Amino acid sequence: MAQLEAEGGDTGHRGLSFGLSTGTTGEPGVFITSERDRARWLGSFLARVLPPALLLRGRAAILLCHDSQLYHQTGGRTTHISLSLGAEGCARALEEARPGIVVGPPSALRRIVEAGGFRRRFPVGLVVTGGEPLWPDDAALLADAFAAPVRQVYQAAEGFFAAACSYGRLHFNTDLVRVERSPIEGAPDRFVPIITDLVRDGPQRMVRYRTDDVAMEASGPCPCGSALPSVAGIEGRLADYPIDPQDRLLLPQDINAVLSPALAGSWFRVTQTDRGILALELPHAVPGPQAARAMRLLYELSGMAVTRRTLPSLPLTAKFRRTLRLSPPGTAPLLSRLQPPVMLSTTSRNAA
Predict the structure, then answer these.
(1) Where in the sequence is the domain holding 313, given as residue range(s)?
(2) Average pLDDT over residues 141-167
């Protein structure tokens, strides 16, 4: 039914919408929403993400794999552009749509603006990213390409969890969802969010749903003054954290902080192929001396053997994971590191 709706068909279930997630590991999730769920989602999204000026006059282009009724409640001001069109096709579709708001996964948006056919001949007021971690180098590139501020949202098939303020921190929507934090042993200032949706009243309830995402704690209160609790960002999937031979976790943020400057913002991926072995995957165009320096820095950071491999060409519909762990597979080795969850503190009455 979700596939039928994505293709514009009638599911026969009046009032219900069936949607598909992008599926980080290749297997998309399914979400079901009622009319009231969709109205609440849209109101929350508009209030938390869009400045008033854009709220009144903005047209949005949503670049995702699958379409859904969820994205079409704006009186015709929303255009869905399928990522299956590829980078060049999406660039042309953006030129035709001329949106003031662009929404999509950061890696897909980056590949679109880097495509040869991208010509931004229209003003953009805001770029909204979601579905993947937003790394600083990608945020800077998108802000420059669209000449617009970039804001991140933390949203999944399971709900709308958090939105970034103007200072870049992600604020959990704790007046809408209940958030528990499960700390990770060996990963300081990291936790896995456990979500209970407080307002969803359709046929699909979310009660104490443990995500596979890792949130990074923020230091001190957010300068924006919001009563909603904030985190520095989402670092990635728990299953993709490399583990060294001493069973220590290698943090993706540390990897990015070392490699991104050394590679001048080039694409890269670090894949753990075996116990104690990392592969630094780079495009062909990265010069040998630059790659060698990045490999040396990764070795000094991790203490593991580092090999170079060619970064594979991924379809635009695939999520890009900056770290990937192939050995051992699955999350089982890391689940034992999760500590008992505690409630994320909030002043939800003031926030509401």
Answers:
(1) 250-335
(2) 91
